[in-house]
């Protein structure tokens, strides 16, 4: 990957980008498409930061705006997710290897769950950005797990629904934006990676856990992404 001059960073909610925005003493902003895009700078690296609002449609709109209007060369998503894998605890960090739209169902037409004609079930994260994330984790001596992310327009708090994502997609976490921005990035040949910190366990206690641990988990993910940005700002290439 060549030297990155402009990178986009996304969250879904204000709580997911606030910890990152707080690390910069100066910024400018631009409103477009009922959303705000913050312009930041870290040495010579230009950063465009935005929260999309919750859900796949908003994530796709924001990702496309970052790519087409702000001309970002890569995109990092930082946020929280519901844990599906039994080895994930609250505040654990997960790096997506690939992502799927788990609520797409064209099985009456003999397609597998999550499949869209002329597309695919999964979209894969960028290997070089993921390698950077793993290098940061190693340098910080911070556990970073890898796995599949299931994306759907639903806050999952039902154990049966949770188990279906594990069985059908091998997913480790579930959230509401990642695959959407991933497919947009793939369509425009823009590398991306998605980092999620576990805020709940996607079961009956999920709403209470989410409210209790949202800020803590968002801070974990934002802190990690900031170190990635520092590395990008000082690197000649990945």
UniProtKB/TrEMBL annotation:
The EC number(s) this enzyme carries: 3.2.2.9
Top-level class of the enzyme under EC nomenclature: hydrolase
SUPFAM superfamilies: Purine and uridine phosphorylases
Molecular function per GO: adenosylhomocysteine nucleosidase activity; methylthioadenosine nucleosidase activity
Domain Nucleoside phosphorylase: 6-225
This protein's GO CC annotations: cytosol
Pfam families: PNP_UDP_1
Pathway: Amino-acid biosynthesis; L-methionine biosynthesis via salvage pathway; S-methyl-5-thio-alpha-D-ribose 1-phosphate from S-methyl-5'-thioadenosine (hydrolase route): step 1/2
Coiled coil: none
Keywords: Amino-acid biosynthesis, Hydrolase, Methionine biosynthesis
UniProt GO BP: L-methionine salvage from methylthioadenosine; L-methionine salvage from S-adenosylmethionine; nucleoside catabolic process
Gene3D superfamilies in the cross-refs: Nucleoside phosphorylase domain
Protein name: adenosylhomocysteine nucleosidase
Provenance organism: Helicobacter ailurogastricus
Taxonomic lineage from the root: Bacteria, Pseudomonadati, Campylobacterota, Epsilonproteobacteria, Campylobacterales
């Amino acid at each position: 990957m060549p030297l990155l001059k402009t990178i986009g960073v996304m969250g879904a909610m204000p709580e997911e980008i606030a910890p990152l925005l707080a690390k910069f003493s100066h910024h400018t902003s631009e409103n477009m498409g009922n959303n705000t895009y913050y312009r930041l700078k870290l040495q010579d690296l230009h950063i465009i930061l935005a929260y999309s609002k919750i859900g796949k449609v908003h994530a796709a709109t924001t990702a496309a705006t970052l790519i087409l209007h702000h001309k970002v060369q890569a995109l990092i998503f930082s946020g929280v997710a519901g844990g599906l894998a039994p080895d994930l605890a609250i505040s654990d960090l997960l790096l997506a290897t690939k992502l799927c739209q788990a609520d797409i169902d064209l099985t009456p037409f003999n397609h597998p769950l999550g499949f869209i004609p002329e597309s695919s079930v999964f979209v894969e994260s960028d290997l070089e950005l993921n390698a950077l994330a793993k290098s940061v984790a190693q340098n910080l001596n911070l556990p970073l797990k890898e796995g599949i992310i299931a994306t759907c327009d639903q806050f999952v708090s039902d154990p049966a629904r949770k188990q279906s994502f594990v069985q059908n997609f091998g997913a480790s976490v579930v959230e509401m934006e990642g695959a959407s921005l991933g497919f947009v990035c793939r369509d425009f040949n823009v590398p991306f990676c998605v980092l999620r910190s576990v805020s709940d366990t996607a079961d009956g206690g999920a709403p209470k856990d989410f409210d209790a641990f949202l800020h803590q988990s968002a801070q974990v993910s934002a802190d990690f992404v900031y170190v990635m940005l520092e590395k990008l700002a000082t690197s000649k290439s990945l």
